[in-house]
Amino acid sequence: MRRHWISVMLVCLLMLGGMDRVGLTAAADGVPPKEWNFITRSGDRLIDGEKEFRFISMNGSNLTYMPAPVWHRPDPWEQEDVFRSLQQIGGTVVRLYTFTIKGGTANGDQPSHVTGLRQYNEDYFRDLDHVLRLANEYHIRVIIPFIDTWEHVGGIKQFAGFRGKTAEEFYTDPELKEDYKHLVSYVLNRTNTYTGIKYKDDKAILAWETGNELYPTDAWTQEMSAYIKSMDPNHIVMDGRYGISQASLEDPNVDIVSNHYYESGGADYALRAAADRNLSLGKKALVIGEFGQSNRTNLTRTADEAIANGTSGALLWTLKSHNKDGGFYNKEGDFRWPGFPSGETYDEKAIMSMIREKAHEIRGLPVPPMPVPDAPQLLSIESVLGIAWRGSAGAESYQFERAEHLDGPWTIIGTQVLDSDIPFRPFQDTTAAEGMNYYYRVKGMNGAGISEPSNVVGPITASSVPPVPDQPMWIPFTSVASMTWYPVEWAESYDIERAEAPNGPWSVVGADLEEADQPFKDASASSGIPYYYRITAKNTGGASEPSEIFGPITVRNIAQLAALTVDSTNGSNVKEYAVDGNLSTRWLSQGQEESHFIEMEWTVPQKLNYLKIWSGAASGEQWHIRDFSVDYWDGTVWVPVASVVDNDMDGFYGEYNDMHFETLQTTALRLNITKPSWQGIPVNPNDKIARVMDMETGYNDDTAPKEVNDAAVVEGDGQLTLYWTDPEDDDFAQVVVLEEGAAKAEAEAVHVGKGVQTVTINGLVNGTDYAYRIRTVDEAGNKSPGVTVSGTPEVDRPGNSCPGGEKPDRGKPSNQQTNHGSKLKDKPCKDKPGSVHS
After folding, report:
1. 813 by DSSP, 3-state: which?
2. Neighbour tally for 765: CB within 10 Å
3. What CATH number did the domain enclosing 344 receive?
4. Residue 300 contacts by C-beta under 8 Å, 6 or more apart in sequence?
5. Is residue 77 part of a domain?
6. 88, 246, 419, 440: least CB-packed within 10 angstroms?
7. From start to end of 162-312, where are the E strands?
8. What angle do CA 79, 195, 209 make, to 5 degrees?
9. Taking the CB of residue 704, how many other CB atoms lie within 10 A of it?
10. For strand 55-59 and strand 93-95, is the pairing parallel, antiparallel, or unpaired?
11. What gap in Å lies between CA 215 and CA 217, rounded to an integer?
């Protein structure tokens, strides 16, 4: 973000009023408050000293990482904003998200807590150090889960991948279990760089959670909870399983059982909370680790049920902080304190008020009056048309003031200004006179009153023309259905252009886009065509230079570009709770109906010849759809192309239906579900529930790629060296070399990347004839018939010398080998080649 630092000394001197921190000395000295105790368990209750410990509060999922708009570390000020908000809410507990692991879908190869096999990032753990410092300062307990089931920020799949193993091996493989213990040991024995307290001695930590929404074996949970307790007897252990296990209820090393409530698992959260408490009653403490993404009535009934039935705690998903550069980290459905008009679609303000009420009710306390906001902090100003500020926890709106002199008098130029719009928009002083110099300050407001003024920034010379935006940058993407870019200061809108060659011609496929339009979907793209993209930022002052070109990128799964219509006969009557609108999450049928449909529609005709359907649930088996058919729209009527009866492909096991049909061109496909499966165990046993997890469709070109050119073989001592020239074929991807007639030819085939053009096969028997087929493979997996080369290794022909003593040509090194021996690093001699056959 571009900001010009103006009157630095003046700004620094005047901003101190907005920088006070409550109780900083205690945290800085590493000394917690006197009444701080380790939380313990007695039967099915949590205990703080001599009294029961119960809470209604919120998750703080981004306290240790920020996934958007780009992956980055949280700022200390942003972390404290969460704690300030929780303090005003009355929350006494915050649950973090798991440690991030390199290779997740959000973090990719970016820095993370776990960067490799038993390797940890110090900067990311220092951020956790700061969270625990704030927890001690604000007297708010922290739940820390170790590892995630899911891949979003890296989970068990990425963790296992460090050893070349799979997620399925995570709970049973001895090496992976020791790796998990290594992570646990590293965390528990870490010394906080702010407070000097070891994590295992820090009373701010409420519990260690074995993970997030895990599906472990009972043996794994027993082993890991015992390991945690053996190393840290001070803290209690929370089972990170998704749901409650009978084994955990009986495990002496598990103190808390937990569950998460979302509508995909049953819409009546209070009913589920009552059932879970009945299981834990008299055995273990129960904490509802996450609940959310539902209506206010459902969430209120859940909190009331938890309070009434003795549940130890419940945590709403999730609380987002202010952004240090202005506004909030906004994601629809997540919560910002104290709630704002931009959250009206999910009743944000009323739900926040309810959580504050219940946070006090569960502790038997009256709800105190809201405090007046602290002074906000005004950021540096480049133009009077873009004045940004750091908001105050609990402020509902802001009042902007302007003066022509540093000491006033001050004129109100904006009131009821919001920092919660999505996206955030800095305040614009549209009443400033051209060429005049001004000073600015801002105050926070809520129902309790108005804050002290912020620091003063100025003088700023007014101009009605905004600065031209900087050149924007793409955030690397893998699908034209999900295109994102870095926000650019002063950009009012963006244009996205597309071309089929890097030098153009360019056509606009997205005009006048706002940041809120991210991720952008190029719905006019077609399957199988390599595209290039660039983006330009604009405002009334002009347009930026186009971004660097991104591409080529080819659409393989055209389902990503479709508009969805679900369970509707007229295109508008979508059944409530039947679909979340995002097939990458899941489609869920509900109720007594047996007939459902999912329709994909494109803005331009698409060429299709296959459809893949993953149905089922990640949480258990037998949720896949049973009977279904597929139709396409021919412009007049729906025409059937495929059908399945008694489907046994269960997405829980990674299975999918792979349907191929004659190539067609259409603007719509429809999946007709005539019988959903009811073999799963829904909350309501009368529901006939099934799930569709994802779909893929497109056109697979079944034309074989061109053959390699100039194939030859050179014979050596116990080896043959094959070389060739790659074909001139745009879809060519790799070469596969197979031994002709070998029993395990496919399994032992050598795969050679584009551009390598040679392979040496070692460990052969001299005097024996060998034949190898060189096949080309394209991007769609089509294989050519192949070219066959043959030769006979000879004892008097060493691979690294040539007859007459001349040295082999080193112009083309061999980068490939079989598993028989070492690589031949020189290009072989070209005399006595073997035979070649097409």
Report:
1. coil
2. 10
3. 3.20.20.80
4. 354, 358
5. yes
6. 246
7. 205-209, 236-238, 256-261, 285-291
8. 65
9. 16
10. parallel
11. 7
